[in-house]
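Task: sequence in, structure out. Protein: Rhodanese domain-containing protein.
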Amino acid sequence: MTLTAVLLVLLSAVTHAYWNYLLKRAGGSHAFVGISKACEAVVYLPVFLAVLWTAPSNALRGTGVYVLVGTVMTLVSYVTLATAYRHGDLSFTYPIARGGALLFLPAFGWLAFGERVGPLGWAAIAAILGGVVVMQLPRLAWVELRAFFSHASGPATLFALLMALVLATGTIWDKLSVMRVNLFVYFYGYTAGAGACYLAWVLRRQGGDAVRAEWRAHGGAAVAVGVLNTLSYGLALFALRDGGSTYVVGLRQISIAVGVLLGARFLGEHVSTPRRVGVTLVLAGCFLMAWGR
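Result:
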């Protein structure tokens, strides 16, 4: 993993944390997310058309298949995560869904690309996963840790792990795609496709009045989230071309620490002792990821 790839991942992580902060500050409604997805497609449409215009025709051959699979995987991730949330609390399912991808990626990366994770990489994975779990505890005590894992036998865990599996598979597909087709055309295509499906679902569920009201209330924030969301994942895709999938996804978890900092500074969120310890573990894991690249 080159230094350039590391810097791209770090910038992607900070951007990711910031758009999530904007999303949370605006309330994070389905209507807001749907609008932000539409903004992504509109804002980056000129770039997409310019790439189509300048790229050789043979460079775009076969892109449709990659875009279609990427769109399906994105929609499946929405469904599995939403199902996990219906069966369990956000604080329990989210860390399993996001951090759990690191459980699958070393094997998937080895099978698909011959990637190997060194000792520092495994230590980094352990630190990041440990930090994500510790952050969810109300206090630092073994009884709280046992209580956390006592919830790990129900449907919430099953669907959260399924989400982690989808994310890991999607990461491998992303890396395969950007190695074979135009990166921006691929990314824009599946983002716009999944976003259109999501917005159509929101309109059917909540109606146009709710979407228009959300636009009037938080239109500027929705545009910013759309721009930063695409930028964040685009940077990660650039890094995937040069870096191992496990290292890219692991290093991106630094966004967790940035998110906690933004929440504490601008949203007045309480940073408990477990959160401080968890963030420290995540940062240590990210440092090991960068060192062991």
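The chain has one domain: 3-291.
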